[in-house]
């Protein structure tokens, strides 16, 4: 193992969170949990990756206990006796394999459509009401709704702690509910949750504070955010480092321990005049550890391989990534599709067997390999 690669396999510690390597499994929706319950296949899927050198697993998005939180079939839940028992089995398997694991807590917001499980009559919930053909397709959230969702996240975090998870990640990215409040296009409220970006951040801040209060001071909270949205890949929440700092500081103060900075291509600079990516800027501005992510280990950014296509993403060298990690631009590296297709990705990188890494294609999404 070269000195550069060695950086990826150094331990990381932040308070109670002690990771054996800097490799993180990125959260990726797999939809293999009928009735919201992780199966034995899900347990084995995560265990294999922990056994092969992934230091921290961030689970696929798991829905919190709110009637409108889910937007997709067979997504795992993080509430109720059977789903939590399923996740406890995942935790025990990952720990036995030497890894650490946190659930990504998720509410899809206005992305939800009527007819979606588990309560098909419930419309999407979002910052603003949307009516189509005389029918409410998105329920504009009242202040009570906001408090109900915050309480659901806090309860999920408390349950995560109770079943032995090593922390939690709050999904505040990609145009889902928390992000919908950030974004001016989807949040034109006239109360204290709308208006300036500071006001539009209030929901997230109160949510983080509630999670922190539920789990105490020592349980790690990761917050995932993005500039791009699934509805608009060119969107930018902020356009300068100064504005990014103003956005992140209140979130950091509310209780975030680690920022997970979602980008489509980790190698792209976030702002003109600097080579720092979003994770690099976030670390510099907040002083908090960061996770970088975005087409790590493959020869093209992920979206071109996620549509209906026969394209195959080949393994790519990670020299640029390792150089940034060695310079401490960021602390942890999240790997997505490369770990879907090859559970042994980390082990092969560690052993210098790049030629043995399996390529990614859409076929890999059909099974839990």
Task: Write the SSE topology.
Elements: H1 3-6, E1 12-14, E2 17-19, E3 23-25, H2 40-51, E4 56-63, H3 81-96, E5 100-106, E6 124-126, E7 130-132, E8 135-140, H4 143-162, E9 168-171, H5 177-182, H6 197-200, H7 202-215, E10 221-226, H8 241-254, E11 258-262, H9 278-286, E12 290-293, H10 303-306, H11 319-326, E13 332-335, H12 337-341, H13 345-350
Parallel strand pairs: 3-4, 3-13, 4-5, 5-9, 6-8, 9-10, 10-11, 11-12, 12-13
Antiparallel strand pairs: 1-2, 7-8
Helix pairs in contact: 2-3, 4-7, 8-9
According to CATH, the fold-level topology is TIM Barrel
Strand content: 15-25%
State the end-to-end distance.
26 Å
Integer tally of domains: 1
Give helix % range: 25-40%
At CATH level 2, the architecture is Alpha-Beta Barrel
> What is the β-strand count?
13
- The chain-level structural class is alpha/beta
Provide a count of the helices.
13
Shape: globular
CATH class assignment: Alpha Beta
| Poorly predicted runs | 301-307
Give the spatial strand order of the biggest sheet: 3-4-5-9-10-11-12-13
Protein name: 12-oxophytodienoate reductase
GO molecular function, one term: FMN binding
GO cellular component, one term: cytosol
Pfam family, one: Oxidored_FMN
